[in-house]
Every structure is written in C-alpha cells, then in structure tokens.
Design brief:
Layout: E1 13-17, H1 20-23, H2 35-40, H3 58-72, E2 76-80, H4 83-86, H5 96-111, E3 115-121, H6 127-131, H7 140-155, E4 161-165, H8 168-176, H9 188-211, E5 218-228, H10 235-254, H11 259-265, H12 277-280, E6 286-299, E7 307-310, H13 326-340, E8 345-349, H14 361-379, E9 384-390, E10 409-411, E11 418-420, H15 422-431
Helix pairs in contact: 3-5, 7-9, 8-9, 13-14
The chain binds beta-D-fucopyranose.
Length: 433
C-alpha cells in the first residue's frame, strides 16, 4: 500500500470502526430486544431474514478482536454502545452485565494504547421504545438523554471521543421514508418527525455529556456526493444533496432547515419545531463524515421529492456503489466552507464491500484512492484530523445480511474464525512507526 504515516500530519489519527449490533451477538449478555430483531423477522426486509443474534460473537471474543486492532497499529477504535444492552427496556433498570461489557471494552482498548471513540447509538432501538413510536415520538430526546447519562456515567471518564447518533440521514430518511432499514416505514410524516427528533436527541445528549464533564464531543453524518444526470438542470441533485448532506448540519450549525427540504416536509414537522434549535445547535468539538459513494439524480413523476437515482458508469463495489474518491474531497471541503470552519473534521467511516475473501487488492486500491483525496483536502487547508476504516471485520450489513463483506479481517460465519486479509497486512505495514 502506498500509505505511509509520514505523509500525514504528526497528530493525524488512523482508526477502524464497527458497531454494536453488527458484531456483538445481541442475544448474549442480557441485552433487550431491538427494532432490528423485529424488522429482520418480517418477510422481505433482510436478505434471508438474517439478524444480529450471534453476528461475529464479539461479545465472547472481545480480547481476540482488541488484539487484532492493536496489531493493526491504528491509533483509535470507533465502536458503539447498544442502547438495549445497557437498558433492556430502553429506560429504567440498567443491565449490569451490559455496563460491565462496555467497561471492559474501554479498559481493554486503553491497556493496548488505543483511543476509544464511542458512538452512543448505531441503530438498535430497544423494542419497547419502538412500541411507543420510537423516533417519531418527541419523548425520545429525554429517553436518549437517560441512556446517555447511564452509559457515559460508567465509561465517560475514559472514552477519547463521543458522538451521539450514527448517520442521522439513515436513522431518519432511509428508515422512515425509504423503508429500507428498521422500522421500515415509508411515510413522510414519520420521516419528518424522526429527522427533527434525531437532532433534538443529539443536542440533548451533547448537553448531558457536557454536564458529566466530558469533552471531545462530535456528530457523525453520512453523505453521498450528488451528481446531476446528463441533460438535467441539476435541481434533482440539489434537492438530494439538501435532504442527505445539508439538512442535519444546517440544523446543528445554522439553526434552520434548507428551504427546498422544508418545501416537502414542513407540513409534517411537529408543532413548535422552530423553537428547538438552541438545543439542536449545542456546540460541538468536531464533526465526522461517513463517505462511500456518489449518486446520479434525474427527475421522475412520482410524489415529492420527484427524483430518482440513475445507474452510473464507474466501477462498483459489492454493494453496487460507484467508486468515486473525489466525492470525499468535495464533501470535506463543502463541510468546512459551509458549516464547520476551523472545527476538526474526521472521516469516521470509509471502506468497501468486496466478495474477494482474502487477497483483497480491490480494497487496498479503494483505500489508497480515498486517502489521496483526504490528503488533497488537508493540503488545501481542511482541518481533517483522522480517518477511520469501515470495518475492522466482516459483519452484519443490515438489510443485506452477512454476504456483503467490508472487513479488513475475514470472518467465517460458520466457525467465527478471524483471518486478516491482504488489506489488513498492507495497512499494518503502512502504519508502522
Ligand atoms: C454505514 C453504516 C455502517 C455500515 C456501512 C457500510 O452507513 O454506518 O453501519 O453499514 O454503512
């Protein structure tokens, strides 16, 4: 790999990322049921109805996994804390075993010299809260505040960084308007409410953590570069960009939502939404970008937002996503110019799914070309401070089950044996000090 540490600023961090439901084995350790367990049980929602009951069995193989992270030579590990593992009912009595698990995880990282980068919520909403409307219910901000206090009251003194909610767009739009992820709704009113409540919960959690004396608090947003289809006037790409890439940062940094998005969702927002921006814009210490691909947009004659994605000409990953490294540079630059200024930025996820089990030269090339765009942004003054690869190991890829493999480490889902791929070795040699 052409990656060498010395090509990056002295304090630049490299890391790998995972999330709780995708790796832990949610049936273990007294965790409560989640809306992903419910969603996966419905016909047609998830490939082969696969779920995260065992996943990579990280719950019982944590030490082996932490050794893999250490031996890779990365500086930080981005993991998430399952709400339902900590509070099986979503509120009320904590699961002592769950708190102990995250305590051991954080200590295990620190013992190995790795900075723990926590995400509070990476999608496994406790089912009892889903019963009460989940993200559609304004009370979720207070429920999330309680969860934040419970988990960070235990590990907040030792984590290096924390972000409340992984990928607001996925939690809101993908899950409540497009119906691809739990709870699988296709409902504009649900989507509008969820998107607003996600931001309210985000701001609430940041305040709770400030109250606990924590620092280095951020937000993690996913974005896709929006390209107009040839021959179109660009308005479809602009609207896609506004819903996907601008909505959440605009709320957090400009205390308003983009007009072109309000044109579609304003009638469906909860009463009094305009009064929530002081909470939503609670100051942050950094922002993370999860970046994988671009989309090409053209009009269609359906209801708002009246657009469709067009198949693109570039080489694609196992996900069918076009490989478009320039988008990483474009979006980092956009974030700095429009929203974050001098605030540190991180690439909190980037990587590819590949069917090649071990000799994954395609992944090495993907990482190299995206890192080159990260260096380009740094050279032009974007305060990019680190880069996390999705993912440490093959895992449960949500609605696509276990067949889409994003790992630097191969996981045999029959035996749960971990085997480092070529990309793992290439990265380890590039990161060696
Ligand atoms: C991101 C998610 C992560 C994983 C990757 C491929 O949107 O945060 O859990 O599914 O995509």
């Amino acid at each position: 790999m052409s990656l060498i540490r010395s090509d990056y600023p002295e304090d630049f961090l490299f890391g790998v990322a995972t999330s709780a439901y995708q790796i832990e084995g949610h049936a273990k350790g007294g965790a409560g049921r989640t809306h992903w367990d419910d969603f996966a049980a419905g016909p047609g929602n998830v490939v082969r109805a696969e779920h995260g009951a065992l996943a990579c069995d990280h719950y019982d193989r944590m030490d082996e996994d932490l050794d893999l992270i250490r031996d890779l030579g990365v500086d930080s590990y981005r993991f998430s804390t399952s709400w339902a593992r900590v509070l099986p009912e979503g509120r009320g009595t904590p699961n002592a075993e769950g708190l102990d698990f995250y305590d051991r995880l954080v200590d295990g990282l620190l013992e190995r010299g790795i900075k723990p980068a926590a995400t509070l919520y990476h999608w496994e909403l406790p089912s009892p809260l889903a019963d009460m409307g989940g993200w559609r219910n304004r009370d979720i901000a207070a429920w999330f505040g309680e969860f934040t206090e419970t988990i960070m009251g235990r590990i907040g003194d030792r984590v290096w960084s924390t972000a409340p909610i992984n990928e607001p767009w996925c939690v809101g739009w993908l899950s409540h308007f497009q119906g691809h992820h739990a709870p699988g709704l296709r409902d504009i009113r649900a989507a509008a409410r969820a998107m607003h409540h996600i931001l309210l919960a985000h701001g609430t959690a940041i305040s709770v953590m400030r109250g606990l004396g924590m620092s280095n608090l951020g937000a993690v947003c996913n974005m896709e570069y929006a390209e107009p289809a040839p021959g179109t006037d660009g308005s479809d790409a602009d609207l896609y960009d506004a819903i996907y890439n601008q909505f959440f940062l605009s709320g957090m940094f400009h205390k308003r939502y983009p007009d072109v998005v309000l044109a579609g969702i304003e009638p469906h927002l909860p009463d009094g939404w305009q009064d929530d921006f002081d909470v939503i814009s609670t100051p942050l210490d950094w922002v993370g970008l999860n970046y994988y691909t671009r989309k090409i947009l053209a009009p269609d004659d359906g209801p708002w937002p009246h657009h469709q994605e067009i198949d693109g000409p570039l080489p694609k990953t196992q996900m069918g996503w076009e490989i478009y490294p320039e988008g990483l540079y474009q979006l980092l630059t956009m974030m700095k110019e429009r929203y974050t200024g001098d605030l540190p930025l991180y690439v909190t996820e980037n990587g590819m799914a590949s069917e090649i089990p071990f000799r994954d030269a395609d992944r090495v090339a993907y990482l190299e070309t995206h890192l080159a765009q990260a260096r380009r942004a740094i050279a032009e003054g974007v305060p990019l401070k680190g880069y996390f690869i999705w993912s440490l190991m093959d895992n449960y890829e949500w609605a696509l089950g276990y067949e889409k493999r994003f790992g630097l480490v191969h996981v045999d889902f029959e035996t749960l044996t971990r085997t480092p791929k070529d990309s793992y070795r290439a990265l380890a040699s590039g990161l060696r000090r």
